[in-house]
Amino acid sequence: MTDPAREPDRQRPLQPVQRSHSDDLDEARGPARRGIYLLPNLITTGALFGGFYAIVAAINGHPISAAISIYAAVLLDTADGRVARLTRTQSAFGAQYDSLSDMVAFGVAPGLVAFTWSLSQLGQLGWVVTFLYMACTALRLARYNTQGDISSFTGLASPAAACLVVTVIWVLEDGRMAGDSVGLVQAGLVASITTMAAMLMVSNFRYFSPKMLTLRGRVPFIVLVAVVLGFAIVLADPPRVLLTLAALYALSGPVQWLVRLRKGGADSASGASDDDL
Description:
two-stranded antiparallel ribbon, globular, mainly alpha, Four Helix Bundle (Hemerythrin (Met), subunit A), 9 helices
């Protein structure tokens, strides 16, 4: 006879397993869903394509098309962040993807546009200037990614630097007669502007952040009139008007720094004179 205590486990009745309410909820929800938000990342992809198209256009000898493509990338880069905030679809993936897109559209693309148009004539100096611009763009983006305050920019933003570089080339190309080659004077000017833009990106100058602008609130009617007038002025002579705007914004950082420095010196002098009384 067999001992009932030694019966195989398969002959013993199974005890019911106690299930908790949380287990039922987890089973109903299914496995954790992972994915990305489509709309903002689709806009970021458009900005990335703008940078890619600018590179292709520059290689094929179309600097004006490359400049316009970079401007389109700037508009899309501005839109993706606003769309993500308005639709509450911000994510760490989107932030990293946007940063990589910016490196291509505002770092690699403007550098190659400048190099293929004129900097290649300067030999090794042209290589150095091009690499300096790309490296400073990467450093600027890395610093921005670790910067918490968005009320102002530390250093010139990479889209603004890209606009400054390609708009200078746009103006020079627009004024160049058909059949004329790019001279060393023009190459030297582009090298100087590109180097200045690179240094401003890694500087400690403070710049106004367009992220602080809001489109939700009501504004006076005259503001809409001013916007329409601004579009009309830009369309009258796009390259020169855009170059003026880009140059003014790039210089606004050093000018504000000089004003604060002078004001601080005046306050110090005033305080010293008061102590002497």
